[in-house]
């Protein structure tokens, strides 16, 4: 049993050193996986290795997992990219933006594509991902929260899309969910001012599903996970697929998609 758990904890990689370098912990307990950003002394600042680590978790997520909880150790969810990545030395062993810039535009795009893979899988229909956000969620940290399906936040949350203030664009898949959630005007306001969004506003504009006192955060997440696990797994997957496709379809197309998903469900349940 202990051995099985250890294997699952290793989950995304059998290489413990890569896991340690990524600054991410990963645990699986039955249908629930928990990803913890684990550099609290640096406010969970992320490096290239963090994003590669997230991608590897996605690649090897055990099939039984239905809910993925993403959280940060310590007072902040994440202070975004490790600012040492902007120095010419970078973070030891992980390169820097200066070294990445030498690879030319196509090379940079290829690197960013790899990093984005660490975020995109959190939207898979087979899982529901929940970002549990306390304190700062800045830049890449904000985008990681946006990559999840749901955000449950503490009263002290502060979201900030810092990239434009640093001469960059948000490129870790955050722009589309932000616009989908809050609308274009509000997304422009939030990103192009790099201002901070606090809990009340986050709740009001749809960035957060729930705001609770910091001490109640774990319980609120446990309750949401239990609610999510109470529905039928296959129906949940099919329903998420339908909901995800809804915006891009006409009413007629969406109705057809509903018919098709339901036919498969009825066949599976009663056929
Ligand atoms: N990178 C590296 N180290 C960081 C860090 C970061 N992003 N954020 C915080 N730290 C470190 C601090 O240097 C400090 O380390 P030492 O104790 O060794 O000095 C430690 O974490 C604690 O930080 P603070 O004392 O500053 O803690 P605080 O609670 O007073 O403030 C904070 C927290 C508001 C997050 C502040 O640390 C801060 O503003 N950090 C920088 C945030 C930032 O600009 N991030 C970049 C976002 S853009 C992005 O993410 C772009 C992208 O993906 C391409």
From TrEMBL:
CDD domains: crotonase-like. It comes from the Bacteria. InterPro entries: ClpP/crotonase-like_dom_sf, Ech1-like, Enoyl-CoA_hyd/isom_CS, Enoyl-CoA_hydra/iso. Signal peptide: none annotated. GO terms for molecular function: isomerase activity. Belongs to the enoyl-CoA hydratase/isomerase family. This is Enoyl-CoA hydratase/carnithine racemase. It comes from Nonomuraea jiangxiensis. The lineage of its organism: Bacteria, Bacillati, Actinomycetota, Actinomycetes, Streptosporangiales.
